[in-house]
Amino acid sequence: MRRVIRLRRVSKSYDTPAGPFRALREVDLDVEAGELVAIVGKSGSGKSTLLNLISGIDRPTSGDVTVAGTSLHDSSESVLARWRGATVGIVFQFFQLLPTLTVVENVMLPMDFLGTRAVKTRRPHALELLARVGLADQADKLPAALSGGQQQRVAIARALANDPAIVTADEPTGNLDSDTAAALLELFHTMAASGTTIVIATHEREISSLATRTFTLDDGRIARAVRM
Questions:
Q1: Strands of 36-40's sheet in order across
Q2: DSSP for 55-79?
Q3: Alpha-carbon gap, residue 100 to 167, rounded angstroms
Q4: What's the predicted TM-score (pTM) here?
């Protein structure tokens, strides 16, 4: 298998009024292409920070982060922005949809940003992705007209817009009903079987049971790794 994510001795600290807060401590992690990896742990254990480092949203305080052959810890912001758009689909915990754009326009946005598809094919591709998450009929509504669960599904469709090699998802089923969550997990499972690497931060046992490996974070360290 081809290794697509490699972290070595990665630590991340944040300055707070009470002093430095160490979110991650000396983390080593390897993930191969086509794995569906679950990152579990209590709130504040470092799950979201780890996802942000893998997706190039944040940089480590120390250590090396290499994803899909790119060294994220020493790349410029402009390089990271383009790399992120082409390589990683990010599903945020709180959607991050643009309120003035329609649902389909939100899904098209990553394609518009990178110019990855011909203009005339972008809307059809976005509609296809919305159909995969059961929302093609909501395409021309604004996000405010959708429920929280529907907005989460739009965020997932947007994350897939540029056919990324890696998808990171922060609590992706937290706002979904059980049937929709099950359909989403099946989608992730199918994507992983096709070679897409999926890294999910979650509290949900259902996701952990589908993962090829589960990493448990405790106080910023990987306390346990389990291969399913």
A1: 88-91, 166-170, 197-201, 36-40, 213-218, 221-227
A2: TTSS--SEEEEEETTEEGGG--HHH
A3: 25
A4: 0.89
